[in-house]
TrEMBL record:
Pathway linked to the protein: Nucleotide-sugar biosynthesis; UDP-alpha-D-glucuronate biosynthesis; UDP-alpha-D-glucuronate from UDP-alpha-D-glucose: step 1/1
UniProt cross-references to NCBIfam families, sorted A to Z: NDP-sugDHase, TeichurnBiosyTuaD
Binding site for substrate: 151-154, 203, 248-252, 256, 319
Annotated catalysed reactions: UDP-alpha-D-glucose + 2 NAD(+) + H2O = UDP-alpha-D-glucuronate + 2 NADH + 3 H(+)
Active site: residue positions: 259
Species for this entry: Paenibacillus aquistagni
Pfam families named among the record's database cross-references: UDPG_MGDP_dh (PF00984), UDPG_MGDP_dh_C (PF03720), UDPG_MGDP_dh_N (PF03721)
Name of the molecule in the record: UDP-glucose 6-dehydrogenase
Residues annotated as domain UDP-glucose/GDP-mannose dehydrogenase C-terminal: 312-414
Cross-referenced PANTHER family: UDP-GLUCOSE 6-DEHYDROGENASE TUAD
Enzyme nomenclature, EC number: 1.1.1.22
């Protein structure tokens, strides 16, 4: 059993802290956001993540997990301090390290003895060394630095953490790497030990590689549309080659979320700062930026004119099973629909409250999918929620004014759309034409 403090109780800090508590450690999660801590102390979870509520409440009840705004006290009581604060994108694309340095300073000022200080946040190469220098300037006490980047995905965060595929541990001293490796023993995961710098780089390289797979398949999808191939068949066929692998080859409206957009931009910035070419990463970013708008052209093509049309937007969160709206395609696309004169009725099973903070336009929000589609001229699918994938297509058909679906996530087979009589335009596949007239302006 180790005593841990986790600084920053967001998506990563809260999941990491809860999982470390769940395997038997004593964990204090800290945040500067007093309202967040107050909610957590009442058992209210500020984010939607499947299974998290139960895990937090159980570990709180069993006395292994606590929440506080008192960072100094948490640091004093702990041997290992995890930093999990945000590293958002700043205007020029680089990672904003303000929160990292502020957290490091508060740790240093509270230290009274030896600590292991672990950076879990995604940070540019060299950050661990700068943090080490900053802490050394503010405390006479000994400490070791570790980089232990996080690879969890939102929506499956608990599973990704409890059954992690690998733990990357880069440390300034082997005694700290040993301690962090031991901490991970109950996860029975593969541990890969590296230098501090390599661990930091692995995180950016891994995210950029996954983003590259997505932009690559989206470019192939656009080519499939022009040539008569079906991208679903193409990606399945490619993925059967174990050297390629089937994951992250789902064509759609591109990647969003709090990580890929920010981390690809940060990597591009690191390249430019280091005088290294970033041609490939530039292409990945540009392809992705264009990809989310392909559904607008498809809608325009189907409806002829969007003025006065009612569009049901199905799915607002950047991916299913989360309420995270950071870099969600809906945040860019809904204002564009409204600007073109459309009335938007937006459905999401979980993210409505979050969405309202991100979308300023005057639109109708509903948690009832069938209310959203009633009398709509078209449905625009932006998130592949299970609720969307399993909707009653006959009911949908009977409720809509025009049976037009533009699907940015390829939720349905072409055959089922054709048998239900929809006009159906998806990504990288043939358009299914209904018997109904569409595009008549
Ligand atoms: N969200 C993910 O899925 C994910 C996955 C892997 C890695 N990461 C990385 O993890 C880091 C955190 O991401 P997140 O999504 O959890 O961010 P987040 O914005 O959800 O949470 C960050 C939290 O840190 C708190 N904070 C800021 N400064 C603080 C300080 N000085 N002291 C204490 N608390 C402070 C904020 O109030 C906030 O609650 C980022 O570097 C991100 O790139 C995120
Ligand atoms: O084949 C695919 C897979 C994903 N996506 C999109 O890519 C984005 C990211 O999806 P996902 O990776 O599942 O979610 P995140 O929670 O953003 O997780 C990524 O970003 C995290 C933060 O760094 C990392 O920890 C994870 O390993 C990494 O997968 C989403 O917009 C998805 O719709 C696709 O378009 N096609």
């Amino acid at each position: 059993m180790r005593r841990l403090a986790v600084i920053g109780t967001g998506y990563v800090g809260l999941v990491t802290g809860s999982c470390f508590a769940d395997i038997g450690n004593q964990v204090i999660c800290c945040d500067i956001d007093a309202s967040k801590i107050e909610k957590l102390n009442q058992g209210i979870i500020p984010i939607y993540e499947p299974g998290l509520q139960e895990m937090v409440v159980n570990n709180q009840a069993e006395g292994r997990l606590a929440f506080t705004t008192n960072i100094a006290e948490a640091v004093k009581q702990s041997d290992i301090i995890y930093i999990a604060v945000g590293t958002p994108m700043s205007p020029h694309g680089e990672a904003d390290l303000t929160y990292i340095y502020a957290a490091a300073k508060s740790i240093a000022e509270a230290m009274q003895d030896y600590k292991i200080i672990v950076i879990k946040s995604t940070v540019p190469v060299g950050t661990g060394r700068s943090v080490q220098m900053l802490i050394a300037e503010h405390t006479p006490h000994p400490f070791d630095m570790v980089s232990n980047p996080e690879f969890l995905r939102e929506g499956s965060a608990l599973k990704d953490c409890m059954s992690m595929e690998r733990a990357v541990i880069g440390a300034t001293h082997s005694r700290a790497a040993d301690a962090i490796e031991e901490l991970h023993a109950p996860f029975r995961t593969l541990v890969y030990r590296t230098s501090l710098e390599s661990a930091e780089m692995i995180k950016y390289a891994a995210n950029a590689f996954l983003a590259t797979k997505i932009s690559f398949i989206n470019e192939i999808a656009n080519l499939c549309e022009e040539t008569g191939a079906n991208v679903a068949e193409v990606s399945t066929g490619m993925g059967l080659d174990s050297r390629i692998g089937s994951q992250f080859l789902q064509a759609g409206i591109g990647y969003g979320g709090s990580c890929f957009p920010k981390d690809t931009e940060a990597l591009r910035f690191i390249c430019s700062k280091s005088g290294v070419s970033s041609r490939l990463i530039n292409a990945v970013i540009e392809t992705n930026a264009k990809q989310r708008y392909v559904v607008l052209n498809k809608l325009q093509h189907a409806l002829g004119n969007m003025q006065g049309r009612t569009i049901a937007v199905l799915g607002l969160a950047f991916k299913p099973n989360t309420d995270d709206m950071r870099y969600a395609p809906s945040v860019d696309l809904i204002p564009e629909l409204v600007a073109r004169g459309a009335h938007v009725k937006a459905y999401d099973p979980i993210a409505l409250d979050e969405a309202k903070k991100w979308i300023q336009e005057d639109i109708l929000y509903t948690q009832d999918m069938y209310e959203a589609v009633a009398d709509a001229d078209a449905c625009l699918i932006l998130t592949e929620w299970d609720q969307v994938k399993s909707m009653d297509l006959a009911r949908l058909y009977s409720l809509m004014r025009q049976a037009v679906i533009v699907d940015g996530r390829n939720c349905f087979s072409l055959d089922e759309m054709s048998s239900h009589g929809f006009y159906y335009s998806s990504i990288g596949r043939a358009v299914v034409h209904s018997q109904l007239e569409v595009g008549i302006g």
